[in-house]
Design goal:
CATH architecture of the largest domain: Orthogonal Bundle
Strand order of the largest sheet: 1-2-3-4
Helix content: 40-55%
Number of helices: 18
Structural class: alpha+beta
CATH topology of the largest domain: hpI Integrase, Chain A
Number of domains: 3
CATH class of the largest domain: Mainly Alpha
């Protein structure tokens, strides 16, 4: 093992520090100490350490800082000296002096007034100015998205939804996309004279549009128009309305024959209005035996874009058989809402929003008490089934509902 000879000289950047060995007595015992000596601002500076390696490190650091003209940092306390060194290192790539950086930082905080951090403000500025990104208005970008949606084979309903929401957004903001902020989107959605369910649909389209703009390079990565924006719900749990068996019989009794298949599928299979409107007779399987009949809701015609099979109950089969075809649209009306409103009015029954579907699901869950099964058949999540439909009606009412037959309802 090499024996150190003292004093030890440490030279860096043309500056030399000397390490001397000393002995101290504590409690009757002798301890070796090492004294680092160097010249700081014309005066001799001494630093005592009990470890030689640590003393050498301090000597080298002192020589380097004196050589680089950073003598003032050596007069700081240990914690402050380390912070100063880190600050110099962080600022080195920017070539900004530490006093200039501190002044700018202080001014920025004063301007922000606690409303945001300096980093958040910088990100906002970059987002709004879209440095290096192509400029495009919401109107033009919306048109591009709608063209792509058509070429990608999106359903007519989805194309209509995109067109409606984006066109309305463009009317409200005749600006370039990079200037839009989450605050503006939040105020826009809250100000729409629409129900929460429709606001939720608009919010979803805006989020989809935002992600598309990022992928196309029209917005910087990480831009989120929906950051902090209220997430509207479709409805409050328990808000839905359903029909009684007697009310449905009255509706059937006043229905145009061309609307009977629509009403029956909605009431006894629970398909959504749009799904029935897109349904083809070829997608209804009429089995020869009980339990083998089902309706195929294809992915491209389903709201959730997921294929599902919905069983055809015996009474539904009885309602559909007189109108059965090998192919062709089940619903012959373009505007089913008007027909449904007229039918309900003629029957003297208040029309209930999505009442047919809500009734079908409510009675179905009361009949079988199988949440996953009904969730799969209806295209709803188990959580929605539990919150909106579970225990709404009793099994005896469900039995009456699914026993409504053509000859019974028309008497």
């Amino acid at each position: 093992m090499k024996t150190e000879k003292f004093p030890i000289k440490i030279t860096e950047k043309g500056v030399t520090a000397i390490i001397r060995k000393a002995v101290k007595v504590k409690g009757g015992k002798k301890f070796d100490y090492y004294i680092v000596e160097y010249i700081l601002l014309g005066k001799r500076k001494q630093v005592w350490r009990s470890d030689l390696a640590e003393a050498k490190a301090i000597a080298r650091e002192a020589c380097i800082k004196v050589g680089n003209g950073l003598q003032s940092s050596l007069e700081l306390a240990e914690r402050d000296r380390l912070a100063y060194a880190r600050a110099i290192e962080i600022l080195s790539p920017t070539r900004v002096h530490i006093d200039t950086a501190c002044r700018d930082f202080s001014d920025a905080l004063a301007i922000l007034g606690g409303k945001a951090s300096l980093t958040e403000a910088c990100r906002e500025w970059v987002s709004r100015n879209a440095v290096g990104l192509p400029k495009i208005t919401i109107t033009d970008a919306g048109r591009q998205l709608q063209v792509q949606a058509a070429s990608d084979g999106k359903s007519r309903q989805r194309q209509k939804q995109l067109s409606s929401a984006i066109d309305r957004l463009a009317d409200a903001f005749n600006v370039q996309v990079h200037t839009i902020t989450p605050g503006q989107i939040s105020a826009y959605l809250s100000g729409l004279p629409l129900k929460d369910r429709t606001k939720r649909n608009h919010r979803e389209v805006i989020g989809y549009f935002n992600r598309w703009l990022v992928l196309r390079g029209y917005l910087p990565k990480g831009t989120d128009w929906l950051e902090g924006v209220q997430n509207y719900t479709a409805r409050n749990p328990g808000e839905i309305e359903i029909y009684t068996a007697d009310e449905l019989k009255k509706i059937f009794s006043k229905a145009d024959e061309r609307m009977v298949p629509f009403l029956a599928i909605g009431a006894f299979a629970g398909l959504r209005h749009a799904e029935i409107s897109r349904l083809d007779w070829g997608e209804i399987e009429f089995g020869d035996k009980a339990g083998e009949s089902f309706i195929e809701v294809r992915a491209d015609k389903a709201k959730t874009q997921t294929r599902r099979l919905v069983p055809v109950k015996d009474n539904l089969k009885a309602w559909l058989m007189p109108y059965r075809k090998t192919m062709g649209k089940v619903c012959l009306f373009k505007n089913t809402t008007n027909q449904l409103l007229k039918t309900a009015a003629a029957a003297g029954v208040p029309w209930k929003h999505n009442g047919l579907r809500h009734s079908a699901i409510s009675y179905r869950i009361a009949e079988c008490s199988d949440v996953p099964r009904v969730s799969d058949e209806s295209g709803n999540s188990p959580a929605i089934i539990k919150s909106n439909y579970l225990r709404r009606v009793k099994p005896v009412a469900a039995a009456e509902w699914f026993s409504i037959m053509p000859q019974t309802s028309l008497n």
